[in-house]
Specification:
Blueprint lengths: L2 H12 L3 H19 L5 H20 L16 H4 E6 L8 H10 L5 E6 L10 E2 L5 E2 L1 E3 H7 L10 H14 L3 H16 L3 H11 L5 E6 L3 E2 L1 H8 L9 E2 L2 E2 L6 E2 L5 E4 H9 L2 H10 L6 H10 L23 E2 L9 E2 L7 H9 L11 H4 L7 H4 L3 E5 L9 E4 L4 H9 L7 E5 L4 E5 L1 E2 L3 E10 L1 H10 L5
Parallel strand pairs: 1-2, 1-6, 2-5
Antiparallel strand pairs: 3-4, 6-11, 7-13, 8-11, 9-10, 12-18, 14-19, 15-17, 16-17, 16-19
Length: 462
Amino acid sequence: MGIAERRSIRSCVARLSRPQKIILGVLALLFIIYNLTPFDSPARSFFRFQHNVIQDYYQNVHPTDSWLFQRQRYPIDPNNDIAIIVKTGFGTRRRVAAALRALSNESFYADTIVTQDFPMLPDQKNYTFANGKEVPVIDIIGWNIERGALKGQEHQERVMKYANLADAVDGEEWMLADGLGKDIGWELDAMKFLPSLEYAWQTLPKKKWYIMADDDTYIIKSSLALVLGHLNYAKPQFLGNPVGDYKGRFPHGGSSVVMSGAALSKLYDQHPEVVAEGHQESPEAIWGDKLLSTTFMKIGIYLDETYRRLFNGEPPWMTRMWVDRWCLPLVSFHGLGNNDAMVHVGDTFKNMTEPVFWRQLGKIYGAPDFSSFIAEPIRPNVDYVGRLDEFSTTVDKITEVDQCVKICHEHPVGCLAWTFDPGRQQCHFARWAILGDHAEGRFSGINGKLAEKLEHSCHSPR
């Protein structure tokens, strides 16, 4: 910096008022503190959380999909550039075949491994996709123990529970194994995240992207490819549906977790000591997805919440089509472990060659067209709001359905769907709509004008 530039800076500082100098000094101090603290320090976490809150508010108020329809700078071939890790447990092992069949239905034949928390069964073999491609299976906790990653933890309660389950499986004591699998499955799941990714990195290296999913998670290949084509896989990327407080934001594992190969390389190749710490923490971790996130945080890789609205933690019939997600692609479904839910979803989406967007869910499942609610706003015996929570609004002492319709119209951007419950004299409304639950005696509807306005704001195909 030359003499003239330094004098210019001093002149600018000198013209500042005392309060302005104090504010500038405080900001400089905060910047120094932020950069001097460890990557996973509470101070950094707090500032990042506040940044995410502001970003989320802006995306909520000003949703946009224009970036998705610019030229892709990092196009991918999902079948060759992605590796998939499907986690399962003894109590849920029967879900895996349906999950892999669903991937086959949309010709998603990426290199895939199944990681489980019990030894191979006597008659168990590797899985195969419909095209004959093999999907290896690994007892990931046993693998981690055998290679010494849990050395010193052999008598820890959770490790001993795994040993009991393994003994029951090896001894073919199926009733005991079933009981243990149901009782301790969630505990063992926390021990699968880090070693599953490490095993995938060792056996399927140099992939551009790695996807970790539960055995009841469905991933929409075409939507995923659209999104990832805009993201630089050469940089550490960590994406998902965020949950948790500022101390440890982490991606909800059931919605699927997406990581770039660069992120795994930085963790497993460059920081093995941090990985070792994570393995040692796993027998006491409550949630494996949080342990994965806090491990990444130690090396400066944070969950990127920019893409939070693309991930979905519900099955289709419970999915909320939010106003701020209307124009965005839908990447995943979760909660498909009961009965033939996975088979049903796999069959429904098997012919989808184009990205699927949140607002298209109604059309795919044969729900009434949103524009039809403009002329016919009230529908009997149905509920388009669904589950109520802190994000929905309830108005009491409403005696007529027309009052509920009027309340919705008084909130032109805050009410996409409404439901009137005459028995309780309540009107519920929310910024989302679901496909429609049968609700005897209730009346419900969708704000057709808002839906039409949102439709016209989308850049994606209608």
